[in-house]
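Practice set, problem 2.
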Amino acid sequence: MRSGSKYQPLQDYLRRSDQQVITLSFAEIEALMQEPLPTSARQQKAWWSNRSSGGLQSKAWMQADYLVKSVDLANEQVTFSKPPRLYHVEQRGDTVFWNGELIKAFRKHLKLSQTEFAELLGVNQATVSQWENNVYQPTRATSKYLSRVAEGCGFPYGQADGASQQ
């Protein structure tokens, strides 16, 4: 008997892959799982959303370090992609200025919802949303705090990963 959820075989398959992008048909996913997908997977794109809490199916691909890039319900296929490992990092002196892409990638690295991430940082969920959508950027003090937390968690955003000095 297999361990984990019924989506464990999909997770295992994705973990073994070294491809940046993988497109699978629903039939291929069902063959991996050895059981049918739920009807909602064939009828609702939302079933394939990259949510960090609630869905056993999304945990399967997210824990394998993939995100759903696109879903084609008409042709019954889904495309998974690995998030980028290199981020645009703006740095002045010893301060990294965090942008929306970097903040969202860090939050997803921690497998936290916006609310959970906000609680970790001591800010409102709306603030995290505004950062991620580039409505505004964190202050210098918050950027320094984000950098300390990221380094403590092993988030690979560092200066060697595409940083631009200004």
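Problem 2, part (b): a different protein.
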Amino acid sequence: MGKIIAVVGGIVAMAGGLALVVFSATFRAAFFAVVLGFVPPILFFGGFICLIAGISSIKDAKRTRKLEQEAEPKKDA
């Protein structure tokens, strides 16, 4: 029964939020101001995290390649 109430409550909340965005000009302006205030920092920090992950991945690949080269048996000519 609780799951049904959660679904119905979610639908009601979504409908109310949609009605506020569509019919209220002042709410729409405030909503867009908040969205435009959050989007740039989210993009910046998301990009920063991706950059760190990429650098870490490159370092791991180099380290793995180096360990594989050291583990290969040396062939004498």
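Answer key, part (b): Residues 8 and 14 are 10 Å apart (CA to CA). The longest helix spans residues 25-71.
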